[in-house]
Amino acid sequence: MEKVSADAFEHLYLEYSDKIFSYIYLLVNDNEVAEDLTQDTFIKAYRSLDQFNGESHLFTWLFRISRNVTIDYLRKKRLFTFFSIDKFQFESNQQTPLEIVMKGERVTILYEAIRDLKLSYQEVLILRKIKEFSIKETAEILNWNENRVKITTSRAVAALKKELMKRRENSEEVI
């Protein structure tokens, strides 16, 4: 692949940086760290653009780089956190304040439960269920085969359901 011009790479950055940032943020739960890791992702991508062979989509290739950059960061920091609900905006399409609060509480419980799952389950749930990547795209990003994505997604959903049931039982005991 021939060297990409600065203008072409800037276009690539403008097109994908927000999506890469939001993915990284979901894993690190820190705005500044997510910005730094997004920057690192694009630096690595620029330096290794000649290695991109076109077998996958450029977007999934970038996500794979961002995943590797983020996992390296998490390993160094030994932080295996998920993300906070604070940054999520809820549409208020004529919902009452009580409905908005109740929805926010349910979503908070869901994300806290996801945070308690092992990292591979968190990743596959983020990519498949939150970011809505296809099985093929998820496999490319995680460097897994498609069957592993299907199995891990199924196991992650089952583990999430189990975790939510456990939380529900624990909250009923408190009442």
From TrEMBL:
<protein>
    <recommendedName>
        <fullName>RNA polymerase sigma factor</fullName>
    </recommendedName>
</protein>
<dbReference type="InterPro" id="IPR013249">
    <property type="entry name" value="RNA_pol_sigma70_r4_t2"/>
</dbReference>
<keyword id="KW-0238">DNA-binding</keyword>
<dbReference type="InterPro" id="IPR013325">
    <property type="entry name" value="RNA_pol_sigma_r2"/>
</dbReference>
<dbReference type="InterPro" id="IPR014284">
    <property type="entry name" value="RNA_pol_sigma-70_dom"/>
</dbReference>
<dbReference type="InterPro" id="IPR039425">
    <property type="entry name" value="RNA_pol_sigma-70-like"/>
</dbReference>
<dbReference type="InterPro" id="IPR000838">
    <property type="entry name" value="RNA_pol_sigma70_ECF_CS"/>
</dbReference>
<feature type="domain" description="RNA polymerase sigma factor 70 region 4 type 2">
    <location>
        <begin position="109"/>
        <end position="160"/>
    </location>
</feature>
<feature type="domain" description="RNA polymerase sigma-70 region 2">
    <location>
        <begin position="12"/>
        <end position="78"/>
    </location>
</feature>
<dbReference type="InterPro" id="IPR013324">
    <property type="entry name" value="RNA_pol_sigma_r3/r4-like"/>
</dbReference>
<dbReference type="GO" id="GO:0006352">
    <property type="term" value="P:DNA-templated transcription initiation"/>
</dbReference>
<dbReference type="GO" id="GO:0003677">
    <property type="term" value="F:DNA binding"/>
</dbReference>
<dbReference type="InterPro" id="IPR007627">
    <property type="entry name" value="RNA_pol_sigma70_r2"/>
</dbReference>
<dbReference type="GO" id="GO:0016987">
    <property type="term" value="F:sigma factor activity"/>
</dbReference>
<keyword id="KW-0804">Transcription</keyword>
<dbReference type="InterPro" id="IPR036388">
    <property type="entry name" value="WH-like_DNA-bd_sf"/>
</dbReference>
<dbReference type="Pfam" id="PF04542">
    <property type="entry name" value="Sigma70_r2"/>
</dbReference>
<comment type="similarity">
    <text>Belongs to the sigma-70 factor family. ECF subfamily.</text>
</comment>
<dbReference type="GO" id="GO:0006950">
    <property type="term" value="P:response to stress"/>
</dbReference>
<keyword id="KW-0805">Transcription regulation</keyword>
<keyword id="KW-0731">Sigma factor</keyword>
<dbReference type="Pfam" id="PF08281">
    <property type="entry name" value="Sigma70_r4_2"/>
</dbReference>
